[in-house]
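Bumping with the actual sequence this time:
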Amino acid sequence: MTVTVVGIGGSLRPNSQSERAMRIALEGAIEAGAKVVEIAGPDLVLPFYDPSIPDRPDNARRLVEALRLADGVVLVSPGYHGTVSGLVKNALDYIEDLRGDERPYLDGRAVGCVAAAQGWQASVTTLTALRSIVHALRGWPTPLGAAVNSREVEFDLEGGCSVPSVADQLRTIGRQVTEFAVSRTS
C-alpha cells in the first residue's frame, strides 16, 4: 500500500531555503515509497483562519483535503523572530477544520518537523514551537527533527545542499514519516 505524505512549508519567496529543505525531506519520503503532495509558498497565502466563516478559498480547501487524506506530514517553517512564521502558523490553524473527522486534527499521523533560520537560537526555538504545535494537534513528531542554521547551510535550485549531513538528516525525517505511516496502515 502506498502512503501519502503532505509537505507544508516555505515562505512567500518562491524557492525559499525552507521550501528547498522541505523538498529534500520529501525526497526521503519518496525513497521510502510514499506519494508526496507539496503545499508551499503561494499555496499558503490564506485568509486569517476564522472558524466562524465556513466558506474557504480553493487553496484552503486543497490544504484541508490533502491533510484529511494524509498518512504523514512534513512541516517546514522559516524562523521569524524565534518562532514559526505567520504564514505557516495560519495554514496549521486550518487543521481545525478536521476537528469533527473520524481522524481529528493530525491524530495518529507522524509529522516531521524542520525549522530553518539565520542562526541557531531562532532555528532551535522554531523547531521546538513546531513540535509543540504538532502535539497540540494530536500528531506524533518524528524522533528526528531538524534545526537548520541558514547562515551555515545553503540549498540550491537543483535540490542540493551545501552540507551533506544536513541533507541526510532531512531525508531521514521524510523516511521516518513514511515508515511510521506504513506501519500504521499495515
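The C-alpha cells above came from a reply further down the thread. Residues 164-185 form the longest helix (22 residues).
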